[in-house]
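Problem: given the chain below (231 residues), write out its structure.
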Amino acid sequence: MGDLKTVVCRLILTMVLSGLIGVERETHGRAAGLRTHILVGVGSTLILLTSIYMAETIIGGASVDPGRVAAGVITGIGFIGAGTIIRFRASVKGLTTAASLWATAGVGLAVGCGFYTGAFAATFLILFSLVFLGRFEKRIIKKIRCRSLEVKTSASAEQLHRIRAILSDYNVRIKDLEIDKLEEPEMIKLIVDVELSGGREDEQIINDLMKIEGVRKAGWLKKEREVKENV
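Solution.
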């Protein structure tokens, strides 16, 4: 395993395969893109090559199990993947990128131990899942969108009932509800986490909510502390 040509070829092959996965993530503007995937893949290959080298060269010393080293790599990648996952209220983003990092580490380990067939097959399947199945999800499968709605309204049970009735008319599923009191007397702010399973009726929902007597403001939260408002 100490052969220079073998080591360099495996590291370069990992760089190419990992780079292909990273390019796909990069085109989608993900934080973990080309360079991150290459570093994860090459690092995994190097660690496994090092463990194999140690197992072959150490005589009379402590035994080195490459399988345990590989397991440690996968565990460590979990911490990197967790850093790519973002949760804001009802939405969770970054799971696909975290999974691609974990899979890229597997590709690197496969190349490191010389399991080229598995590495090539896995890279093909990973790219197929990211590119083609992603398009399939968007075009064929009915996509459920999660958004957060902010409504400033007068505080009454009737108002809440009418707001809920409008959301129900558009087949909107309420996942979470937060109610805050405002400085204005008899006024509250609602933050509603919802699932939208229909078409692009976001603005129609806002327009209908604004027609309710007592509703001062309604809008979709685009990101934390930023609201697209209709006053």
